[in-house]
What we know:
Mean pLDDT: 76
Structural class: alpha+beta
Order of helices and strands: HEEEEH
Number of strands: 4
Helix content: 25-40%
Largest sheet: 2 strands, antiparallel
Amino acid sequence: xxxxxxxxxxxxxxxxxxxxxxxxxxxxxxxxxxxxxxxxxxxxxxxxxxxxxxxxxxxxxxxxxxxxxxxxxxx
Length: 75
């Protein structure tokens, strides 16, 4: 398992972040990548918190050269 994914799993508990199981996936001619989905519940009536959380996830992705797919809303 890549080192960064291990670090993310350790960090998530201190930041109240949920994480899916790490999965090994393939794309273009069997090139391998690892996937994980991180999520955090944020009240949308506190818009400042939504943007701060998004910025935090984006900075984490930039620091570790990860793909960040921004955010989605769920019921």
